[in-house]
Amino acid sequence: MTLPVTGLAAAICALMLIFLMFKVVGERLRTETDFGSSDDTKMKMVRGCHSNLAENAPIALIMLAILELANANHWGLTALAGLFLVARVVHVFGMYQHYEGKTLRFRQIGVVGTVMSLAGMAVWILYLFVTNHI
Question: With CB atoms 3.0 to 4.6 Å apart as the test, which of 15, 37, 62, 82 could cross-link to 43 if both were Cys?
Fold first, then answer.
């Protein structure tokens, strides 16, 4: 059995993590910071982008896999995965906007999209549990 939606989402998350990892490395070189974030606000921002994805991606991918293994509707699952991935990209863009003193709107949209996708997957799993196991 394959998990095409989960696999694609995992690959995209991995590429995003690598991209953000290089952003952190670039800031470490710029600030000559070996550990932590020093007092540099840009370093804190890029580390925040990377860590926020690293914190949210695992649970999203686990829930996607659970739903996919439960034969959840492919297009519904694809929509939730897409929402999660787009929200993560918008969040990173929003973090850069916020850092530059511009609008918070994109960061907020990214957070709301992430919460909506995670909540949607969680509720779907709960629904499947209640309807199939009780």
Answer: 37
